[in-house]
Amino acid sequence: MNQVNSAYNIWIGGSCDYGHKERAGAAAAVIELDGKVVDRMQIADLHTTEFRMMLTLMVQLMNELPEGSDIIFLTNAAYIQNFDREPGPKSANPDLIRQCIESKKKHSSVSVRIVPYHKSPLLIETHDTSTEAMKTIRVKFKSES
After folding, report:
1. Could you tell me the CA-to-CA distances from 17 to 51, 106, 125 in Å, in that order?
2. Residue 111: helix, strand or coil by DSSP?
3. Please, what sign has the CA dihedral across residues 86, 126, 49, 140?
4. Closest Cα to residue 12, out of 86, 82, 106, 78?
5. Is pTM, for the whole model, over 0.90?
6. Looking at 19-23, 69-73, 135-139, which range is the least confident one?
7. How far apart are CA 47 and CA 144, in angstroms?
8. Helix 94-104 and helix 50-64, axial crossing angle in degrees, nearest 10
9. Are the CB atoms for 74 and 9 separated by under 8 Å?
10. Closest C-alpha among 32, 36, 52 to residue 44
């Protein structure tokens, strides 16, 4: 990913399992440039939510993509629409939102577009990939316990 001033479409989704005490959360992204998939990423952690993981992955991607890029995050998670608004006293994940605000400054434009889940094969892929990442980290945790 070294082309400057190109539009990146980043399909991003997450998964969280509230049913386990270690509560794994994960996020995955499929990165497109000029209509071609150029990369895939996933992250997972314990004791977190899918929304924290999605914001974390957004920060990571904004920091890794070439400065001056145009970035569109495509998702069905309306929660991340406010990634670039200064958090208020009741905002969830204010630390990550502030990181998003700072990372966004490196680019020409960064936006979030809400898309229908069932019509977006790459979005479905992100949810499947994040679910698998979440399961993997939980299995690893249990085997180390």
Report:
1. 12, 33, 18
2. strand
3. negative
4. 78
5. yes
6. 19-23
7. 16
8. 20
9. yes
10. 52
